[in-house]
Design brief:
With about 160 residues, this protein is an alpha+beta fold. About 20% of the residues lie in helices and about 35% in strands. It is built from one helix and nine strands. It holds the Pfam family I-set.
């Protein structure tokens, strides 16, 4: 069955790397969990490893990770004879807006959902604001033209 030989905390080389080494015959399949959820490879997170005999060595690579990538990373190695897993804590950055301590302490959660709570209502409000601004501009242009056209006549026939 597979055995996890090493699992190291993230280290910054070119990218952040969680180095690992797994032994198993037959060669185990490897996958990762982040805080208990299956970790999918993306542009930011990818796994690179090479097989040398019965040992697979490699890195889980992070390209410019943020505080969203903090958490527990578990490597799971599985073959026909069994499976093995091991967890390590990965900490990359602090949250950018920590809680304010004191009488009025609060903590805001900055997630993608935070920025768009009710997108349709926000879109409607923006369109109303843009429409009112356009109406005000047209009104000012018409007022300016009328003042220039009719405002040049002297009142009471006085010439100045």
């Amino acid at each position: 069955p597979p055995r996890i030989l090493t699992l190291e905390e993230p280290v910054l080389h070119m990218d952040h790397c969680i180095a690992f080494a797994v032994h198993g015959n037959p060669a185990p399949t490897l996958h990762w969990l982040h805080n208990g959820q299956v970790l999918r490879e993306t542009e930011i997170i990818r796994m690179e490893f090479y097989q040398q005999g019965e040992v697979s060595e490699g890195c889980l690579l992070f390209n410019k990770p943020t505080h969203y990538n903090n958490g527990n990373y578990t490597i799971v190695a599985t073959n026909q004879l069994g499976s093995a897993n091991q967890t390590i804590k990965g900490h990359f950055l602090e949250k950018p807006f920590p809680a304010v301590s004191g009488l009025f302490s609060f903590q805001m959660q900055y997630t993608p959902e935070f920025f768009c709570v009710d997108c349709k209502a926000f879109s409607f409000q923006v369109s109303i604001a843009v429409g009112l601004a356009a109406f005000a501009c047209v009104l000012l242009v018409v007022l300016f033209i009328m003042i220039n056209k009719y405002g040049r006549r002297s009142k009471f026939g006085m010439k100045g």
